[in-house]
Amino acid sequence: MTAVPIHAETHAEEPAERRKRLAMVASKGTLDQAYPPLILASTAVSLGWEAGIYFTFYGLDILHAERFDRLKVASLANPAGPIQLPNILGAVPGATAAATKVMRKWMSDARMPTVPEFIDMCQELGVRFFACATTMGVMGVSQQDLIPGADIAGAAAFLDYAADADVSLFV
Amino acid sequence: MSTDNTTEIESVELDCEGLLCPLPVYKAALVLDKLESGARLRLITTDPGALQDIPAMTRQRGDTLVSADDEGGRQLFVIEKGTRR
């Protein structure tokens, strides 16, 4: 048996000035739904807050090294999507790729960072990334599949973090 | 030219013209994090949300919004770095 270090936070002294904290769950893995948690987290740390995102179920793709730069926008059953199609056409092969292409163009024309760029921005200012251990087990994702800096954690660890949050959001 | 002995206030400028939320706040934070307390940032934005966002940012960070001007959709904010690290 190898001793596992106890997380330092458990015994950390209360800092002189407590920082506010944002705790979010990112549960969706589409391009459009990847942006809101990354925008809010990068903003929170810019305000001097702490921020952490718990990536669970499809949201785990946002931390997946081979998938996070090819997230897609649904063309089917997405009436507010970037291309307005009846569902019968939204199911046609290539429609999802077309919707994704339109949204990517919107973003780059507006000089918005890509998802991988937002991940870098978040990490630069210390956003914590929690990767849902159960999702990893269920979907066969290993630590090596994830971007560096993702902490594997279960619901208890996230709730322990979120219990001290001032703002908690589910995306 | 000033002849008094007071130290000149450090002032840097950041142009965020054309950038949308969260970029002006994010980029301003990167600059403010490196400034000494009392130093000033002149921030230029065109994001319509900036008129609400920049005052909110200075309030949350503990910095001081010295002035805010808007002319034709182009804003100039002068921010003084507070005492927080």
Entry summary:
The complex is a heterodimer of chains A (171) and B (85). Chain A is globular and about 55 Å long.
- Summarize the biggest pleated sheet of chain A: 5 strands, parallel
The proportion of residues in beta strands of chain A is: 5-15%
Percent range of helical residues of chain B: 25-40%
Outline type of chain A = globular
Q: Total strand count of chain B, please?
A: 4
Overall radius of gyration of chain B: 13 Å
Low-pLDDT segments of chain A:
none
Number of domains of chain B: 1
The helix count of chain A comes to 6
The CATH architecture of the domain at 20-69 and 114-170 in chain A: 3-Layer(aba) Sandwich
The span between the termini of chain B is 33 Å
Return the CATH architecture of chain B.
2-Layer Sandwich
Terminal Cα span of chain A: 39 Å
**Uncertain regions of chain B: pLDDT < 50 for 5+ in a row?**
none
Which fold name fills CATH's third level, the topology of chain B? Translation Initiation Factor IF3
Largest sheet of chain B: 4 strands, mixed
> Which assembly state applies to the chains in this document?
heterodimer
**Which class of the domain at 20-69 and 114-170 in chain A in CATH terms?**
Alpha Beta
By helix and strand content of chain A, what is the structural category? alpha/beta
Q: What does the radius of gyration of chain A come to?
A: 18 Å
Structure in words:
The complex is a heterodimer of chains A (171) and B (85). Chain A is an alpha/beta fold and 171 residues long. Chain A is built from 6 helices and 5 strands; from the N terminus they run βαβαααβαβαβ. Chain A has helices at residues 31-46, 87-90, 95-109, 115-124, 133-139, 155-162, and strands at residues 21-26, 50-55, 128-132, 150-153, 167-170. Chain A has a 5-stranded parallel β-sheet with strand order 4-3-2-1-5. In chain A, helix 1 links the parallel strand 1 (21-26) and strand 2 (50-55). In chain A, helix 1 (31-46) packs parallel to helix 4. Chain B is of the alpha+beta class. Chain B has a single domain, classed as Translation Initiation Factor IF3, CATH 3.30.110.40. In chain B, strands 1-2-4-3 form a 4-stranded mixed β-sheet, covered by helices on one side. At the A-B interface, helix 1 of A face helix 1 and helix 2 of B.
